[in-house]
Amino acid sequence: MSYTYNPPPRFTANQTMLSEETYAELHAIAARYPEAQSGLLPMLHLVQSVEGRVTPEGIEACAEVLGISAAEVSGVATFYTMYKRKPVGDYLVGVCTNTLCAVMGGDLILARLKEHLDVGNDETTADGKVTLEHIECNAACDYAPVMMVNWEFMDNQTPDSAVQTVDDLRAGKDVHSTRGPKLCTWKQAERVLAGYSDNLADDGPAAGPASLVGLKIARERGWTAPDGAAQAETGGNEVAAAKGADGTHEAERQDTESAIQRSDADLKHEDDTQTKSEKDD
Fold first, then answer.
1. Per-residue pLDDT tens digits of the chain, which is 281 residues long
2. Cα–Cα distance, 46 to 26 (Å, whole number)
3. N or C end of the chain: smaller count of CB under 10 Å?
């Protein structure tokens, strides 16, 4: 399926913040997929890369390109937390406050940043540099407590290191993620999520020592994954043995169900007996 971009009649600089180039890119994203609607998620990221949030204009543009209603686009944009309806600062700082990170100090980090930046959850500093939010899980429990900046990991954080990170970012200093490239702005990161590479995917280690402990132990002890074909054959034999030639597996299931039924009956009998005893007393 090919897409030809024709600027809509309503398009003028005064009516929308989206440029003709952005409209063309929205069409290009939709054209990547056999079903154009599958492109909605990266299209919304593209809108955020241009406007700093998902705007009504962005929703209408996505709906127009995909031939669906604005309500359908809005339903997606309000479902996923990565899509923002309020302006986001240059750096979106997310502190994990889920169980492990919280126990390891995540709650303290969030509280310290709130005080230091003078903002609450999902609020942006007065200079527009940092938006702070708590995140339920950053999927990096092996490096708890974890903070993310524009979706890049900052591992093994402390309140002091977190404050130093946001101070350096606000001062315009280069800051590198623990397992990735130099941090870019939020709009730049959103453009990457829209599918436009910044050629930094291979900068920094993809996995750190904590993530590779299991692999290290396996290699030291000579452990390997079982052969798929052999496992399938063994598994089939085990199932056959469990069932038995005479259907013993089905017989065991029936015995278990009977036992459960008897247990229910016993409980009812005990309740009736106790009630009768109380009445006699």
1. 444 545 444 444 444 468 999 999 999 999 999 999 999 999 999 999 999 999 999 999 999 999 999 999 999 999 999 999 999 999 999 999 999 999 999 999 999 999 999 999 999 999 999 999 999 888 889 999 999 999 999 999 999 999 999 999 999 999 999 988 899 999 999 999 999 998 887 787 777 788 888 999 999 999 998 887 666 666 555 555 545 545 555 665 566 555 545 444 455 555 555 555 555 65
2. 8
3. C
